[in-house]
Amino acid sequence: MDDSKASSNASSTLPESRPARVPGSWPASSSWIERFEAFGAMSADLRAYLYKHSKLSQIPAGSIIFGPGSTAGSFLLLLSGTVRVQKTSGDGREIVLYRISAGESCIMTTACLLAEEDYLAQGLTETDVEAVAVSRQAFDKLLSASDVFRKFVFDAYATRLTELFMIIDEIAFLRIDIRLAQRLLRLADDEGRLAITHQALALELGTAREVITRQLREFQRRNWIVASRGSITLLDHKALAELAGPVGPA
Questions:
Q1: Is 195 helix (H, G, I), strand (E, B) or coil?
Q2: How confident is the model at residue 57 (pLDDT cuts 50, 70, 90)?
Q3: What gap in Å lies between CA 164 and CA 99, rounded to an integer?
Q4: 31 near 71, Cβ under 8 Å?
Q5: How confident is the model at residue 247 (pLDDT cuts 50, 70, 90)?
Q6: Going by DSSP bridges, is the β-strand pair 25-27/54-59 parallel, antiparallel, or unpaired?
Q7: 3-state secondary structure of 190
Q8: What class, spelled out in words, does domain 3-170 have in CATH?
Q9: Residue 2, H or E segment
Q10: CATH number for region 175-244
């Protein structure tokens, strides 16, 4: 059913629900939808339904918003801040799968809602975050009633899935020095500085801290970087860029 048809009978086909209350949350204001350009094409009735069944939450930096074995109770939309989604192996090694930024949804949550499965990874707020939680019932109803909402969900899913395959390719086929050079260039600020530890870089790349330390020492020997405790400064962007080649998505 498209949005124009759904608008005439949305009140009868989309029953009311009461989403589970999230600590620090309150009913969403309709103004948040303006941050998602795609939702502007939804019918007025379906937008109203979306507002009614969503909650705004303020989440401080360093909070775990989901973890392995937990249940997805709502569809998450980020309004501000950054969430890091990471996976830990049986031997304790970690890797960053992707980051969620303002205007995006979490495909891990989407997958869990669609398959009715528990989370297999952890979501951690890297900054203070403002997010909207859409109830599971509303997610299901909007997915079937709104072409616009359905396209938003699956476009995001397809894009992120492609990026995850790129990460798999990098881990399987790219040398660690190339991957490290790419990540340093991607994370550095305009002045070529990164406030990051060797352990955090190892987490980013899914490898051991000792491997990162050894490679950073080699970069420093070549005068490409200066590494100190908790920070790295890039000295030779050109050399790093030549090693890195094309830099993919973050």
A1: coil
A2: very high
A3: 11
A4: no
A5: low
A6: antiparallel
A7: coil
A8: mainly beta
A9: none
A10: 1.10.10.10
